[in-house]
Design brief:
305 residues, 38% helix, binds zinc ion, 4-stranded mixed beta sheet, elongated, Rossmann fold, 11 helices, alpha/beta, 16% strand, 5-stranded parallel beta sheet
């Protein structure tokens, strides 16, 4: 292939945007998060666990099918939540470990599912970075009003735009919404340099601060809806018990398949089998009644579709 027109020259964003100015206002039009996320939580917080699986499938040893089911569920919920915005294009935020969109990351699969559902282009590749960085939370030492400006500078420092006319509305996809530093940078540059009218930010979760007393903490992922989509996907691709309900108690070595198991003592937190069995063993009293249940499920799955 021969390229006849000249390639646009990439623009370093730190030269065209000022962190001071961006910290003053909100350059994006609105923001939605599907749920909330607490990074220091133990495994009893299911919505945070699911976010971690999506962000870091390797360290969670999530198998391929489970990861696809999680991605499918997030994409379905994102498409539904952002339907009213009628985007003309989507762009996903590059994560700290990327200099350009990495097709192996679940983030890329998520963007591609959303782009097909809306039938609009995925323009993520108009942004690139010169080097990978440590995640923001690892370098963040400041507090108060300084944090936002500091984070904006962090996003700006090595981010480039390959300018291109887009127009209309862009849906900006990110995993965790923190203080909106990233959304401010992307939205400002899209509006100033790409002719975009509106930028909406959609996130799989918002970070909870102060133990959730910041307002975002009340945001709870609609787990029933999430699991409906995920389980449907699992069923269509060979089944398995990964997304079956499991019940766990903090600091107990067992996981339970029955919410009314006496060993739960009424204190069970909702989990899923593939998560619960990472660090716990099956409860013997739940398991003893399991074969019948499994056989019945197997028969139902086998002959229902
Ligand atoms: Zn049990």
């Amino acid at each position: 292939m021969h390229q006849t027109n000249q390639k646009p020259i990439p623009i370093p964003l730190r030269q065209v945007l000022s962190a001071n100015e961006l910290a003053q206002g909100q350059s994006f039009n609105d923001v939605i998060a599907l749920g909330s996320y607490w990074s220091r939580t133990d495994d009893v917080d299911l919505q945070s666990q699911l976010v971690k699986c999506f962000k870091n499938p390797e360290s969670f040893s999530v198998d391929k099918l489970c990861l696809e089911a999680i991605t499918k569920a997030y994409s379905g919920m994102i498409v539904q939540a952002s339907q009213a915005w009628q985007p003309n294009a989507i762009i996903r935020v590059l994560s700290s470990g990327e200099t350009k969109p990495d097709p192996a990351k679940p983030h890329s699969a998520l963007a591609s599912l959303i782009s097909s559902a809306f039938n609009v282009p995925d323009l993520t590749s108009i942004f690139f970075k010169t080097e990978t960085r440590k995640p923001m939370r690892m370098i963040d030492q400041l507090s108060g009003n300084e944090v936002l400006r500091h984070r904006i500078n962090y996003v700006l420092q090595d981010l480039f735009l390959v300018p291109r006319q887009i127009n209309g509305t862009v849906l900006l996809i990110d995993d965790i919404y923190n203080l909106g530093a990233t959304a401010r940078v992307y939205a400002a540059v899209l509006k100033r340099l790409c002719g975009v009218d509106k930028v909406y930010s959609i996130n799989i979760a918002a970070a909870r601060f102060s133990g959730g007393k910041d307002g975002w903490g009340k945001l709870v992922l609609d787990l029933d809806r999430f699991l409906n989509i995920a389980r449907c996907y699992i069923q269509q691709h060979g089944g398995g018990d990964s997304f079956d309900d499991a019940w766990i108690v903090r600091n107990q070595a067992e996981y339970h398949l029955k919410q009314d198991c006496l060993r739960l003592d009424g204190k069970g937190h909702r989990s899923l089998v593939f998560l619960a069995r990472r660090e716990r063993v099956p409860c013997p009293s739940c398991i003893s009644s399991e074969p019948k249940r499994t056989l019945r499920n197997w028969l139902l799955n086998r002959f229902s579709s």
